[in-house]
């Protein structure tokens, strides 16, 4: 028999067991997060989607029945080792189950006589009776037994209008309940009882006064104690080091409620591939059933609480004490907003009223403040756990990543990502255009790199595999300071170098900003590698590196050929653009942008064409403006080494930084001059 488990070590299971122990107090409670049900399951329990709720009294008398709404269908039920893993088997669940297990007269109403379900009820009622007669029985178990032993469930449901039977009392075909054939419906129970007026119902956290059986934690504990009393022949659990009941049937539903893939499985009874090392599968890997349940339940809970889903890939990151941490997939501005909402009772009205006009320094300081805040609140002893899963088949789940970080290191890595990619970006915020200094989020990166425009918006459509692959490859860049994949950098540069391929100018600006962020990150990574190779302190490296890339200022000292050519292109673009009529030429593209792709491949030859066209637009300007732009072009050209200038070799992505920095500088210079002129005009009028 082959034992299959895709893990690097069992440490990740210890992390999940620790997580379960810390949160055990809320086990069995259904809570809601972002309008979705969330539950940390107790051991030996699972969740199902119920279609019918049957209400009985404490004596087992039928009261009424209801269809379950889609919003309320999640139901906690006890399961055994075999019933929790059943597919085609007949092992019954201990309490709630499908109609064919709960109804002794099911075959009288079933229209397919080729299948015999008569044994299902016998197995179910026998097991329920064992629980009822045990030392760990519960009043709700007794009430349910008293009701189901009468074998009137289908009749009661038919009279209540829940089930549809024909004149012969047989299930009507094609009748469905919430998309499920009615004869396959899952039934849950409410048991109403008389409660003593002196009971402190409001302060009770056990759920014992709930009529809903799936919310009663005392019923859950009753089954746990009863089920553990049936365990025999304990063996060594490799996870806990204790003697415990061993299980080779482990949980599914890990990534979502419909997930049939298992992380741990043992089902090869033909090839016995463990032979030669072990005599049997228990020697290969022996896991206690309760430990397995707790680890799997903690994993399900944390994934549903804060996991990320990218096609078949699933990723979850948490802090050891479940304190808030910066989201690795968010943009810089969103991280700051989250920090403010979580930790600050802030007086941000003035800042928020002028967010678009906030300076880059203010935005950068806001981000650094958030990083310092997270680091302080997490402390020195906490750690971050990262788990990633993917599936090659529908039945097998592989753990593709397991890492732990000191929280301080994780925060530093997140900070490095956003600072090394820091650039001017634009997005929609509160339905308004918003600019910020920092880095965009993962979804935005995917949209810019692989999205197509639909009604002016970049969308990924059905490119879920591309998105999943991008997330998987960018994750270590963000959380571990790994270098960017070079194909992502090249793709970003390629898209930014083709402005005419975009229908909307804003989408090209997004592509340009992302390309600049990626190029800056690439340069920062090279600087970091150089620092390590030279064993320099960061301060020494900053002094030894003459070039610093910042959207807020043009690097006048940079003599890099690509950077300078980018600056020339920006000046040519500005000269032509400022001659356009805002209404008549609003959809017109400048020659600089039209030739941008060719320019990046053959800069010297293409620049000759662009420069000739620029002269025509220069002649349309005022003398002062003409002199300013002419002098700027001469100043930039003078920085070239002649041999470098006349080379016709392809430019690297640095030309985009030169282009964007020069464009930003000229735009803000023009705004400042306009503002100065208005102030002077106002002063004259006064």
Residues in β-strands, percent: 15-25%
Give a quick account of the main beta sheet: strands, pairing sense, barrel closure.
Answer: 4 strands, mixed
The number of strands is: 24
User: What are the low-pLDDT stretches, counting only 5+ consecutive residues below 50?
Assistant: 1-8, 345-357, 541-547
Strand adjacency order, main sheet: 6-5-11-8
Distance between the termini: 94 Å
Number of helices: 25
Q: Could you tell me the radius of gyration in angstroms?
A: 33 Å
Coarse shape: elongated
The amount of helix comes to: 40-55%
Mean pLDDT: 87
Structural class: alpha+beta
Structural notes for this entry:
This protein is of the alpha+beta class. The protein contains 25 helices and 24 strands. A four-stranded mixed sheet has the order 6-5-11-8. Strands 17-18-19-20 form a four-stranded antiparallel sheet. Residues 1-8, 345-357 and 541-547 have low confidence and may be disordered.
Give a brief rundown of this model.
By secondary structure, the protein is of the alpha+beta class.
Question: Secondary-structure blueprint of this entry?
Answer:
Blueprint: E1 2-5, H1 11-23, E2 30-33, E3 36-39, E4 45-49, E5 52-57, E6 62-67, E7 74-78, E8 97-98, H2 99-102, H3 106-109, H4 118-132, H5 139-148, H6 153-159, E9 176-177, E10 180-181, E11 186-192, H7 217-229, E12 235-236, E13 243-244, E14 246-247, E15 264-268, H8 281-284, E16 287-288, H9 289-306, E17 307-310, E18 313-319, H10 332-343, H11 349-353, H12 360-378, E19 383-390, E20 398-406, H13 407-420, E21 423-429, E22 432-438, H14 442-450, E23 452-454, E24 457-459, H15 464-479, H16 486-496, H17 505-534, H18 538-544, H19 561-577, H20 591-594, H21 596-601, H22 603-618, H23 623-638, H24 642-646, H25 654-685
Parallel strand pairs: 5-11
Antiparallel strand pairs: 1-15, 2-3, 4-7, 5-6, 8-11, 9-10, 12-13, 14-16, 17-18, 18-19, 19-20, 21-22, 23-24
Helix pairs in contact: 1-9, 4-5, 10-12, 12-13, 14-15, 16-17, 17-25, 19-22, 19-23, 19-25
